[in-house]
Amino acid sequence: MDFQELLKSGSYDFIRTNERLGDRIMLLGLGGSHAYGTANENSDVDFRGITLNLPSDLIGLTKFEQYVDDGTDTVIYSFNKMVKLLLECNPNTCEILGLEDDQYLIKSPLGQELRENAGIFLSMRAVRSFGRYANDQLRRLQNAIARDSLPQPDRERHIMNSVNCVIEEFNRKNGDAVNSSSSSGDFRISMDISDSPDMEQEIFMDAVCRHFPLRRFSDLTGQVRAVLREYDKLGARNKKKDDNHLNKHAMHLVRLLLMARDIVEKRRIITRRTEDLPVLLSIRRGDFMLPDGTYSKDFYAMVDEYERKLDEAIRHTSLPEEPDMAAVGRLVERVNLYAVTGRL
Predict the structure, then answer these.
(1) Domain ranges of the chain
(2) Out of 3.30.460, 1.10.287, 1.10.357, 2.40.37, which CATH number does the structure's domain 3-122+323-341 have?
(3) Is 124 in contact with 319 (CB distance < 8 Å)?
(4) Digit-coded pLDDT (tens) for 283-341
(5) What is the pLDDT of residue 46?
(6) Structural contact between residues 306 and 130, judged by C-beta atoms closer than 8 angstroms
(7) In this structure, are residues 189 and 205 in contact, taking their beta carbons and an 8 Å threshold?
(8) Rounded to whole angstroms, how far apart are CA atoms 293 and 323?
(9) Is the predicted pLDDT of residue 169 greater than 80, yes or no?
(10) Residue 204 CB partners (closer than 8 Å, separation 6+)
(11) What does the DSSP 8-state code read for residue 45?
(12) What number of other Cβ atoms are within 10 A of residue 234's Cβ?
């Protein structure tokens, strides 16, 4: 498909006419399966981009985070919004900095500079962020298949992994409340033998709180409840349609683990998965799905192996715990100065 020709069509006139877009766009590239290299004949075209903030956003009264065109499935983030997402190593957005040259439709000099400086945003936050997204994909798989086809302890273990991600992220974002001198909180979960007649093992929580802000505690419990609710949802399935979706979830689970390992080992964002295409496309075709809609032992063994390799990479990584905030600050000042004055 000629994406440059597609961009010239009337459906994308907003790219050229909107005052926030046009020549203010720093980067515009492929998203989704076309970005990963896993597209098939049924794949939609997604464009993702970054645009300069207007001067009024930076020194005036306007506010802008992103432009969304639902008709073309295009999302273009403001530069300042993108910086926040990059600092968190958000998988759905940091991949725009890992595209190959031929996958960009627009690339300004500042966009190229941002791309060349992708490494200053990378940190161990990627492990938590990519891990959380991978767990979400795994949970979707387990939600959609027949629950009685999986051993109950395995289902409970998957839930525990998802809840652990929620707790770790909560502790990171609320460190001031968790560790302050006036209040404290300690939240841990573990698996143990259950007293319930319909469960072999069950997740248990140990929580110790002292003078802990109630609203923050409510936020944590709300997130945990959301995990449990999502896992327990099990509706009627349109088998052919849902199997295609399940295979996409399974493929993205593996892709996320592979991308996380690249970041940890190579300190690079590699969006197009050229070397991994055989296994990713095999998953997407349904080669690992059994006739009853579950997944083969080979699939779960493969996921376990990728997780083991990621854990091994984490133990030997030189990736910093936090992004290079000084370098990020200098880049943000440089880009935003240009956004206001038009001068570098």
Answers:
(1) 3-122+323-341, 125-316
(2) 3.30.460
(3) yes
(4) 999 999 988 778 888 998 999 999 999 999 999 999 999 999 999 999 999 999 999 99
(5) 95
(6) no
(7) yes
(8) 41
(9) no
(10) 189, 190, 191, 192
(11) P
(12) 12
